[in-house]
Write a structure and sequence with these properties.
heterodimer, A: alpha/beta, about 40% helix, B: alpha+beta, Porin, 2 domains, 16-stranded antiparallel beta barrel
Chain lengths: ~300, ~450
């Protein structure tokens, strides 16, 4: 009896759900920005993380569970980046549309050539990712297959607006390819420039622009450097100088600053993803600004 | 193509022979065949020419497509081939082992129990000295596109023997519509905030007093659970369970093995980007049939109904929503319990018993730098006297309200290992005991995501 009464009460109290548009739940801001480019006004985008947050270390907060419950499509990097929270969200969101293997689950890493695949899997090496380095959004070329995949899935799941998605994608693809050519021309002087990186989150950027990584602050991925590590690094950099220390907004600045003060190598804070700074409000701004900041320390 | 050339040559060679035969109709037929062959060749050659032209155009790199996508092709070459090998165990579930153990020292080794309260086997402090806690073996995986499965064994040493306890064995639906999910098997009941956590995910060595006394640290039972997640912006979840009624505080699988049910609701949200919270209300109603409590050798027994209500709140703070550097968690709960039935003290006659008891705890955990946490906790129990008939029994509180105050610091070199030092000022019995613990929690293999 009590159960029945409670249920009736709940039915009265609950607000009625309003499903306005096709809802996209994006794990990271770059995929939210991509969904906005392809979906425009036909999609409502929920972003799970901001540029100031470490996508490895998000908690499965109640707001995220509620967000995923209403999603028609889930777009994430994959490749183990969200292992600490996404599987739990998927299981607790009670939403069949966004489970692994469904068309509503878009894993970008599945269509992008992965770098840094570890030859051996052992946690002695820190927080390693079996499928390769998941920080794929620092190479704009990876957005080409990502956009294609997202557009296909949007067309499949929201057939009513398929035409719009197809057109938006074609327009984005054209603009994006032109922009890449432009960025590559601007970044030509950076070819071969030696840099220090904080975490191995810049592998794709380095690969794209031909920058040379001479050292990594985090000796083991995901574990903060010890003072002994930093001293060794300082000694190494005196032998083998670098032009810049690259750091993302969400990463701890202490180690980078310590090293910069002692080695006279400037810290370049890159946006890392959409919203990482004031200039990177969308995908185009993200790479415009990244190149601009890198050019300030060009040889 | 080569084959056709041979045929063509053979036909041409054959022609004069045919002519000699002087059969005009035959010549006509062969001429037609030749024409057909010639046409077919022409088509092939044209198609090939078109393809060559296309390929040449692409190589010239006139389109931005060629400029942009060509370098992508290089990338996969760098991968070591071994990762892609097909392994026979590729479909195995993720397997994780958690090793928990430590060493403790107490200012008094006399086990006084918690006078005034019926307690299960797990309610007391860990045994003094070196001891293994529960070593946990967990396996989980998607069963198919409709179900998910989870299996956890807890192995612990008890009274000189090694006991294997089936802690969890459940499946859960993945594909029900309308925000519904069903879980079946043995699972941690959805009541309370802390109840669904594995012990290795706790912030303290021991659980708070109300969890220890009212739920024997954790209410685990067999049955089914239905949850419904409302399609609202604010997280709003409702759940109900129908259970066997075997795990403490239930006992004896009453009502033909359907001796307990629960209801729970939780809600939560973010406040700005740095704060988030979750609040819950839970209800547990259980039958106890001849449930033993207190001293193992001279145990008391209880038969009757138990109702438990829990209200809890968790508040978390992480600057900018990034918990990596610093974060804070406040966790609190209030418990109410009514037990109504017959209490039979050891070696005595049954007494009619009906009493309300309450409990509470509050704790704060602060990560002040990466890898380091400190935490403080207070927990307590309160009960009225059940009456003079209970004087001298284990339900006689003797006017004492149990309290435990704890302080801990832990260090996690990585997310898979943790060392913890904890001090308890234990006033759960009239004589205060100091307890000092050093605990390790080590996680091997796959480690699933932790709950909020």
């Amino acid at each position: 009896m009590l159960k029945h009464r409670l249920f009736l009460l709940l039915m009265l109290v609950l607000p009625l759900p309003v499903q306005a548009a096709f809802t996209v739940f994006a794990c990271e801001p770059e995929w939210a920005a991509l969904a906005t480019e392809i979906g425009q006004s036909h999609v409502k985008v929920i972003t799970a993380t901001t540029a100031q947050q470490d996508p490895h270390a998000i908690q499965a907060r109640p707001s995220l569970i509620a967000g995923l419950r209403k999603a028609d499509l889930l777009i994430c990097t994959g490749a183990g980046l969200e292992t600490g929270w996404l599987p739990l969200l998927q299981r607790r969101a009670n939403n069949p549309a966004v489970q692994n293997g469904q068309p509503g689950y878009v894993e970008v890493a599945s269509v992008v050539p992965m770098l840094d695949r570890p030859a051996s899997l052992d946690r002695v090496h820190g927080d390693v990712h079996a499928q390769g380095n998941p920080h794929i959004q620092t190479d704009p070329r990876n957005f080409i297959p990502a956009a294609r995949l997202l557009s296909e899935r949007l067309q499949q799941l929201d057939a009513e607006n398929a035409e719009a998605y197809r057109n938006n994608h074609a327009a984005f693809d054209e603009r994006w390819r032109k922009a890449i050519v432009d960025w590559q021309q601007r970044a030509a002087p950076l070819q071969g420039m030696p840099v220090v990186v904080q975490h191995r989150s810049w592998v794709y950027l380095l690969h794209w622009l031909g920058l040379e990584r001479v050292a990594t602050l985090e000796k083991k991925p995901g574990l903060p450097p010890s003072s002994a590590d930093l001293s060794a690094l300082l000694a190494q950099l005196q032998q083998q100088p670098a032009r810049a220390i690259l750091r993302a907004a969400y990463q701890n600045e202490q180690a980078a600053r310590w090293l910069s003060e002692r080695s006279d190598i400037p810290v370049v804070e890159l946006p890392y993803t959409v919203g990482g700074n004031a200039e990177s409000g969308n995908l185009f701004g993200l790479f415009d600004d990244t190149i601009t900041r890198l050019l300030t320390v060009q040889p | 193509m080569n084959f056709k050339m041979v045929v063509l040559t053979a036909v041409m060679l054959a022609e004069p022979v045919v002519c000699l035969a002087g059969e005009a109709s035959e010549i006509e037929r062969i001429k037609q065949e030749l024409e057909t062959l010639r046409q077919s060749y022409q088509q092939h050659i044209e198609a090939l020419e078109t393809r060559i032209e296309m390929l040449e155009n692409q190589q010239a790199g006139e389109s931005p497509a060629a400029l942009v996508e060509a370098p992508l092709v290089e990338a996969p070459a760098a991968e070591p081939a071994m990762v892609a090998q097909d392994r026979p165990n590729a479909f195995n579930p993720q397997i994780g082992v958690v090793l928990v153990g430590g060493v403790s020292s107490y200012s008094s080794d006399r086990d006084q129990g918690i006078p005034g309260y019926m307690t299960g086997d797990e309610a007391g402090p860990p045994s003094e000295g070196f001891s293994l806690g529960e070593s946990e073996l967990n396996m989980q995986a998607s069963i198919d596109d409709k179900f998910y499965g989870n299996f956890t064994l807890a192995v612990a040493d008890e009274d000189g023997g090694t006991e294997v306890e089936l802690e969890e064995a459940w499946f859960q639906t993945l594909a029900l519509p309308y925000g519904l999910a069903v879980r079946g098997g043995r699972f941690f009941s959805g009541i309370g905030y802390r109840n669904q956590f594995h012990r290795h995910a706790d912030d303290f060595v021991d659980r708070s007093l109300p969890y220890r006394v009212f739920l024997d640290t954790q209410y685990i039972d067999d049955g089914v659970q239905l949850t419904w997640l409302a399609p609202t912006d604010q997280f709003l979840e409702f759940g109900a369970e129908w259970l066997r009624g075997e795990g403490f505080p239930a006992s004896g699988a009453g009502d033909n093995g359907k001796g307990a049910w629960t209801l729970f609701a939780r809600t939560g949200n973010d406040v700005g980007v740095s704060h988030s919270w979750q609040a819950g209300l839970s209800w547990l109603s259980a039958d106890a049939n001849d449930r033993s409590s207190g001293d193992e050798n001279e145990s008391d027994h209880f038969t009757g109904d138990i109702d438990i209500a829990i209200a809890d709140l968790v508040w978390k703070w992480a600057p900018g929503g990034n918990p990596n550097q610093r974060n804070f968690k406040l966790e609190t709960a209030w418990f109410w319990q009514n037990q109504d039935g017959v209490f039979t003290p050891y070696d005595e006659d049954g007494l009619s018993y009906d009493e309300d008891q309450t409990g509470w705890y509050v704790n704060g955990i602060y990560q002040f730098r990466p890898q380091w946490h400190i935490g403080l906790r207070a927990s307590g129990l309160d009960a009225d006297s059940p009456g003079s008939a209970f004087d001298g029994t284990s339900l006689d509180t003797d006017g004492h309200d149990p309290r435990i105050y704890s302080a801990m610091v832990d260090w996690s070199p990585s997310e898979y290992s943790r060392l913890r030092l904890q001090y308890d000022l234990d006033e759960s019995a009239p004589k205060t005991v100091d307890r000092l613990y050093l605990q390790y929690i080590m996680s091997l293999g796959a480690h699933g995501a932790h709950r909020y």
